[in-house]
Amino acid sequence: MSINNDLLKLIDIKMSDFSKGQKRIANFLKEHYDKAVYLTAAKLGEEAGVSESTVVRFAIELGFDGYPKLQEALKDLVKNELTASQRMEVSSGRIIKTDRHILKSVLERDSARISETLNNINLEEFDEAVESIINAKRVFIVGGRSSSALSQFFDFYLNLMRDNVINASTGTVTDTFEHIFRIDEGDLLIGISFPRYSNKTVKAIEYAHSKGAKTIAITDSRLSPLIENASLSLIASSDMLSFIDSLVAPLSLINALLVAISLKRKKYIADGLDQLEELWREYNVYSSDIKKKYL
User: Which of 10, 145, 203, 243 is 20 to 30 A away from residue 103, measured at CA?
Assistant: First the structure.
């Protein structure tokens, strides 16, 4: 079963077969799926006025292995269907319900996302991604919308570590395809996208795959539209409901990639940095006017 709007359609199709209690769950999900995504089976049952076991049976009736799988489908529905204003309303509501200071609330959630990413990342795929970036003939990076900030960071440091790195994120979809239209076997395209997914990035990774290039998806879930055309997938946790995308865990993942590459190309990179230091000094790239105050 495909997820997204199909979940709501499936509920409608099966509505006549549901028991009275299951219909109450179905109607609650249709009206409040943005809230139900964070409810346990017991809490959802309480909200719908049924038992926890009825919620579990409802999930199985829909074709899921259990309630956690239904919850995953709800998460995918929410992160793809909510508008920006709806996401803002839901995320602000979650924060208002707590009595914690906003700084503590946000930083603790970001810390949790990094921990979740570390616990779930496939280390073998990570190591293979490092080798692929090092050995590719050319590396193209595409990150649309808010992920363009990640692509710029990745591009800046990767250019210090190897030649033929192209940031194809800037500009329109047409601009991106003008950068990558000659991509072929031996090249690598890294697509970076998080909900709501950038169609430009989805199309770019699809095109690169069709041309025989290797592709790496840096995204939030195995259900991401980037995964279908990715040779390798690196999953980093993000806040699917926040209006302001949390890119802390994805940035940390990219930082880890860069550090791993730098350790494998240490001599080459060190020689290049020595040359750059001379140029930076000659052209006064960095300020050397450090003012010291003594008490």
Answer: 145
